[in-house]
Amino acid sequence: MRMHSFIWIGLVSLLLAGCSQNMEVVNSGERLEDSPKPVADTNAAPLARKGEGEKSEVPPFVKAYFMHTWVEALYSKPTQNKHPNPNWQSPLKDPVNGRVWCTDCHVSGQIDFSKIPKIRNPMVDDLEKDKQFMADLMKKWVGRLNSDEFGAKAKLRGAVTCLTCHATNPELD
Ligand code: HEC
Ligand code: HEC
Known about the structure:
single chain; mainly alpha; 7 helices; binds heme C
């Protein structure tokens, strides 16, 4: 787990062209999803500890691919899910100028998440078929999107649910 984080953080540091802040991240061994939350809540325990041994082998850059796809589906019709909602409408008040962006939810400030690229890695092919993995991830994202503790909610017309983007309950498909 630790080794893995170090390798990943090292990779990000390289991607972000070795700014000194990233070096501090390496030293503290902080993981990306440890972005501090403004208010404490019961789900605040970062994945590094909570999900240990479960899906911890999924590298963050693979999740980054899905994150990009998902954020895009907030302002343009989703096409990559199995049964996209045919009546999809952007849940954003302003899908052109008021998009939800990475930094609305990733508030750490130590790593600029908006610079993490969308790269389709072979692991993506396997994981997008893993219903449980995808559902767990999406639940966390939707939860944070609708949360008062983060900046994204103010950009929404109303609460987002799974059926905003999926035609049918994606957990039962
Ligand atoms: C903003 C749009 C959006 C919302 C909201 C959303 N999803 Fe998804 N979902 C997607 C997209 C896009 C994909 C395809 C990702 C890929 O394969 O790259 C996907 C894929 C999935 C998959 C994999 C199977 C498939 O249909 O491709 C599951 C399972 C899933 N979502 C569950 C959920 C659950 C559960 C919720 C509610 C908690 C949810 N999603 C909310 C956009 C969304
Ligand atoms: C609505 C809130 C929200 C937005 C917007 C968002 N994220 Fe995330 N992101 C999360 C949450 C919550 C997690 C933790 C999920 C998990 O790993 O189980 C996460 C996890 C990640 C991870 C995995 C971190 C790790 O250490 O495993 C990466 C990488 C990531 N996001 C990148 C991005 C990028 C790039 C964008 C912009 C395109 C983005 N995120 C936009 C909420 C968000």
